[in-house]
């Protein structure tokens, strides 16, 4: 009976460090590892992914497929049911070691009919639908935010450099005593762009005073499990996804927290991503999720200086 481990990351900027940790903690004996090429999309049906196809070809009846979290293998409701059908056909067991599905035997079948138990199918469909709803809401909120920003004249993305036609005005204003921060606001560019435009005018002492703030140092915060589960189903920036992937799971009773080390900006970004857990129009908040989000918010808020 072989133990077959499946791993996948969504971008080539992510690592399998967190998956490795979860699977190592599971104590899997003599694992045979199948790892997709970095950047293999979750939108590609699992049965069409090269390495999962190799796993199924290699597997023999009685073998067990191990994954760290369900979303490493599947996202959508139909994908889950399709995979369970194949695993049942090939008489393979499935073990999920973390996340919402970890306490369930998803391969349980009725002893007489051989069909997937109705309770298992209900839980699978409910959890998968909840995940899809969360992703849809996140996309809608992002789209609405971009539309609102666009209506105010903001196009998003990195602020541009100082336009050539404005460079002389910027330099004159700087020589007259206008601060770099004020010029950046006036011209809607970054402070770095202003410094570039006036680089030859910056004496040593001014350069030191206006220099870029020291890089933020990573801090470790416990992300409640319900928040972590939600974030894993959400589109994240590479740095945010990497922070989650590298987090350490800490069991707490029947739940868990994810111990994440990241710079404060990444924690604030993750907090912003889980705003829908407070409830949105048409989708009331789940009290436990809302409470978990606010616990994380309190921890993140403690990182933000309140003043000199």
Automatic annotation (TrEMBL):
<dbReference type="InterPro" id="IPR050639">
    <property type="entry name" value="SSR_resolvase"/>
</dbReference>
<dbReference type="Pfam" id="PF00239">
    <property type="entry name" value="Resolvase"/>
</dbReference>
<dbReference type="InterPro" id="IPR006119">
    <property type="entry name" value="Resolv_N"/>
</dbReference>
<comment type="similarity">
    <text>Belongs to the site-specific recombinase resolvase family.</text>
</comment>
<feature type="domain" description="Resolvase/invertase-type recombinase catalytic">
    <location>
        <begin position="2"/>
        <end position="153"/>
    </location>
</feature>
<protein>
    <submittedName>
        <fullName>Recombinase family protein</fullName>
    </submittedName>
</protein>
<dbReference type="InterPro" id="IPR036162">
    <property type="entry name" value="Resolvase-like_N_sf"/>
</dbReference>
